[in-house]
Each structure stands twice: as structure tokens, then as C-alpha cells.
Amino acid sequence: MRRGSSARAPNYSPPIVEGAKTAGGFITRVLDYAKRDAGKVELLAERFEIQRVFDQIQQTFGPHADAEGIRLDIKCTYAELTSDAHLLWEALSNLVQNAIRLSAKGELVKVQALETDDVLVIMIADQVATGSNVIGQAGFGLDIVKQIAQLLDAQFELQPNRAELRFAKQGHEHA
Fold it and tell me: Which residue(s) pair with 164 in the sheet?
């Protein structure tokens, strides 16, 4: 067999593969942002358990958090929402990714849903050291979250060490 005639795929080093995945993911997010900004996104409203989105967050970010020594604590919820599950995942993934990226080894990132009679709150909290009343999360991702919140008719609130998406409840329906 001649050298170089093997049908095997090249063995790229893990940093190169991860870099390509990260760049591809960023480009996809920028293109999605542009579509939403141009009004070219249709909402897919469906009734779903928020836990389904939380499970996707765990699968996506749990291994990275573990590798970085960050504790990712996603509280189980039975709350349901009628909304666009993919857009909700996109908003939450931006917030969780920022929280993990900015956290130090041993710190906690917590994701949970809280319900009252009037509102459903999905909260991401972290322990990122910030100055007094300084909002810890920054970057392009926050514009994405604000844009998605508006599309989902949710209120986005950012406080030091805490980000929230608030959905007004009408019975158990959310728009």
C-alpha cells in the first residue's frame, strides 16, 4: 500500500477540533441573530415541560463545567410552558455558557424555575466575583437573550450574579 493512500480520516488534535466546533457554533448564532433581527424567525409555540430544556442544558454544558471544576446545579422542575422550546434553550444556553466561562474552579452555577400564581421565572445564578452591584455577565450573548426574550414575550432581568427570564402566567399558558 502506498503512503498517503489510506482511507482513514486525518487525526486532528482535540484543540483544533474543539476550536472548529466553537467557531461553527458562534457563526450559527450570529446568523440566527441576524435572522431574528430581520424578523425572519417564526415562533414554534408548543406546550412542553421546562425540564426538557434543562436536560439539554445539562447534556450540553455539564461535561464542560465538570472539566473546568465548576458545579452546575440544575434543579428539577415540573413546570410547563407554551412557547418556543428551541428559542428558550438558545437564551438559557447563552446565559449558562457565560456563567460557566466567567466562574472560577469550585464555584456554583445554578439553573432553576420558580413559579408563583402570576409568573414563571427561569433563573441562572452564579458566584462570579464582581464589584458591588456590578452585573457580571457581558458580551454578544446578552443581546441575543434580550432579543429572544422579546420574541417570547418574556421579561429579561440581569442583576449581579443572577439572570432571569420572567413569563407572565395566564392560567398555565405562556406566550
Answer: 123, 157
Direct distance between the N- and C-terminal alpha carbons of the chain, in angstroms, rounded to an integer: 63
Q: Distance between CA 97 and CA 159 in Å, rounded?
A: 17
- Residues 175 and 161: their CA atoms lie apart, in Å, by 27
Strand ranges in the chain using DSSP code E only, listed in sequence order: 46-49, 71-74, 80-83, 108-115, 119-125, 155-159, 162-168
What residue has cell string 426538557?
A: 52
Secondary structure (3-state) at 134 = coil
Tell me which residue has cell 440544575.
74
pLDDT tens readout for residues 51-104 = 999 999 999 999 999 999 999 999 999 999 999 999 999 999 999 999 999 999
Task: Quote the CA–CA distance of 154 and 165 in Å, as a whole number.
Answer: 6
Largest CA distance in the chain: 72
